[in-house]
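step=predict obj=Type II toxin-antitoxin system RelE/ParE family toxin n=72
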Amino acid sequence: MFYRHSEKNDALFTDEAINEATEKLACRTDTGKPGHIRGTMEQETNGRTVLVYDMVDNHVRILRILFPELLK
């Protein structure tokens, strides 16, 4: 598959933002806001993606990665 240079950079930027957000969640799970489904939390990563997660036995479990601009 061929990507334009800007699309590849956007993908790398998003990947890095998701990695950074998950590392922060591992240290501090209270930074997110309550999710739309009871028991879940949501953490915005870079203005482009939202991590939906919950906690199971003191472990962060990423349930979904949402792209709000695609949901419009």
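step=describe
Residues 1-5 have pLDDT under 50 and may be disordered.
step=end
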